Amino acid sequence: MSSTTANKKEIVDFLWEWAQTNGDWSKIEEVNSYSYYTKKLKAIISTNPSPDQDEEKLASEGYGHLRAAIEIAVEDDLLKKIVKRYKKGIAFPSILRIEGHKIDTHKGKINDIYEKCCISIAGHNSPSEIDTTPTIDELKLDFEEFTQLRRVFI
Predict the structure, then answer these.
(1) What's the predicted TM-score (pTM) here?
(2) From CA 93, how far away is CA 25, in angstroms rounded?
(3) What is the Cα–Cα distance from 123 to 153, expressed in whole angstroms?
(4) For the chain, which residues make up each domain, given as ranges?
């Protein structure tokens, strides 16, 4: 191996995937996708917590999935995949597909839902004056509202 080859960094492109374990190994879904997070979110929303389950913890987990789904929707739907996490480069020609007036109209509400996700997940601390006890019903309403907002962009 030459010294110039040894000094070069090898570039590796990762695609994170998982295989469903229901016996059908032909179904593979990219983990970093809108559908991946919304499936997890829908499963939580459809849960009717029993008295021994912690609804706040379950809703907090759901808000984490909603937050990830919003981030992906912003990348894919609002910004038309111009910039993608974990990818090098900018797909500049996609800028022509961005509808800025729609972003201007809806960005405040999208941000409000995203901020609620941030204060509702376990990883973020909030001041004690702010009630951050999430419920499954609130999560369902926020997901439904975001779903309606996302439809504007797809």
Answers:
(1) 0.76
(2) 36
(3) 29
(4) 31-151
